[in-house]
Write a structure and sequence with these properties.
Layout: H1 6-26, H2 28-34, E1 39-41, E2 49-51, E3 56-58, H3 60-64, H4 68-83, H5 95-112, H6 133-136, E4 151-152, H7 166-171, H8 179-192, H9 208-231, H10 237-247, H11 253-264, E5 267-270, E6 285-288, E7 291-298, H12 305-322, E8 324-331, E9 341-343, H13 364-372, E10 379-384, E11 399-403, E12 413-416
Parallel strand pairs: 1-3, 2-4, 7-8, 7-10, 10-11, 11-12
Antiparallel strand pairs: 2-3, 5-6, 8-9
Length: 418
């Protein structure tokens, strides 16, 4: 791409500055995030826009064809990739599918916030609403024809999450240990020359350590921007839920479930008389009566058989540790005919083969059955997507919802399936 004279770039830079200002005024949360990305002209490699989590790269002709509202969208789009942690969350996933999943996640949030996308047919499948990029990824076909409209340069171009090849480091002497210093020097040079009197070179690939450092910086920026927008009263409820979910410390669901089991284990001292062989003294002894657990699984079709088997396998491992007796129920809009299945602590627990399902989702039959049986377990664990009819009032025993997806629950403890 030939160097652009300052006069030709001036209206483009004015539009970008005006779009940033409008975001700060109307949507301070997004505006604050966008301000962390300096504006840089892209070279031949930049057909639209892109980011490496350090700058906003743009093609002047692409920006010139956008309205002011659409320019706000592309600025916010790149900033959201950074704030959502897409810079370091790919791991083993194939880059093309990961980029598509990330674009769906970002675009759906921005469209819900009322921003206007720059292109018709932009990646924003409503079926993925409220899902994270990790949850969207397995739903993207391996041979998908979809493409992100921008360039995600915070990651390498390989098809795995591995480190870049040594050959790339040899071809680029500034990469590797000296890469960070080279980028800093280039960044300082760009600042001295303004926002782009000439096209920027394609940025060097970030090392894993640099991606982690940037991810921590963006997490702090996200928290600060959210706090400022809350104080100004300009943070929507949907955006608040997304931010809180991203910033809240999370544990794997297995660890949380194990914690609930341990808390409910009934360990206490027993003063019962020992056998004659143990002597006549009455000394306190630590004893455990085990716990009574009811496990319910949603068989409406929203949970796969593999996921159900994984859940049951985890329960099987936990029940032996705390001597739990587990009653397993299966329910879509009614209890399975063969339910319940009872498992003692020493029984091998497996997913029953006679489970039927596929209807709508109604959680009430499980609670009705427990009331009819006059059961009050130490806990009820329900594995579901939380999309169905709930009882109006909570029962008098603890309920833990293991939720796949973003469905809300009216009461009880909600644990997100990671």
């Amino acid at each position: 791409m030939a160097d652009q004279p300052d006069a030709a770039l001036e209206p483009i830079l004015t539009k970008l500055a005006a779009a940033r200002t409008r975001l700060i005024m109307e949507r301070p949360f997004l505006g604050a995030l966008v301000m962390h990305l300096p504006l840089k002209v892209g070279g031949d490699w930049c057909a639209t826009t892109g980011t490496d989590a350090q700058a906003f790269y743009f093609n002047p002709q692409f920006i010139g064809n956008l309205s002011l509202a659409q320019t706000q969208f592309v600025l916010a789009h790149e900033a959201m990739h950074c704030a959502m942690g897409h810079t370091h969350r790919r791991n083993h996933r194939v880059k093309r599918r990961w980029d598509v999943a990330c674009d769906h996640a970002v675009n759906l949030i921005l469209i819900e916030e009322g921003l206007k996308p720059p292109l018709h047919g932009i990646l924003a499948d409503q079926n993925f609403m409220t899902l994270s990029a990790e949850e969207i990824y397995p739903l993207i076909p391996e041979d998908t024809p979809e493409e992100s409209f921008d360039q995600h340069m915070f990651d390498n171009d390989s098809e795995s999450g591995s480190n870049p090849d040594e050959s790339e480091r040899q071809d680029n002497p500034d990469a590797g240990e000296s890469g960070g210093e080279g980028r800093e020097g280039q960044s300082q040079a760009d600042e001295r020359h303004g926002s782009g009197s000439q096209a920027s070179q394609k940025p060097d690939e970030l090392s894993p350590a640099e991606r982690e450092e940037l991810a921590e910086q963006w997490k702090n920026r996200l928290a600060a921007a959210a706090q400022a927008a809350r104080l100004a009263g300009k943070l929507s409820q949907s955006m608040t839920r997304w931010i809180d979910g991203l910033l809240a410390p999370t544990l794997p669901w297995r660890a949380l479930l194990a914690r609930f089991f341990a808390v409910n284990q009934r360990d206490d001292y027993s003063w019962r008389r020992p056998s004659r062989r143990e002597g006549e003294a009455l000394l306190p002894r630590l004893s455990s009566e085990g716990i009574d657990v009811v496990a319910a699984i949603d068989t409406s079709g929203s949970i796969s058989d593999d996921e159900l088997r994984e859940f049951v396998s985890e329960l099987d491992a936990l029940k032996g540790q705390v001597r739990a007796r587990i009653t397993l129920l299966a329910c879509d809009n009614h209890l399975a005919d063969a339910a319940p299945w009872e498992f003692e602590p020493w029984d091998a627990m497996q997913l029953p083969v006679e489970i039927e399902g596929g209807g709508g989702t109604d959680f009430r039959p499980v609670f009705d059955w427990l009331e009819h049986e006059n059961r009050s377990p130490n806990m009820l664990v329900y594995f579901t997507d939380a999309e169905g009819d709930f009882p109006k009032a909570p029962p008098n025993y603890p309920v833990i919802w293991l939720v796949k997806g973003k469905g809300a629950v009216p009461w009880g403890e909600r644990v997100q399936l990671n």
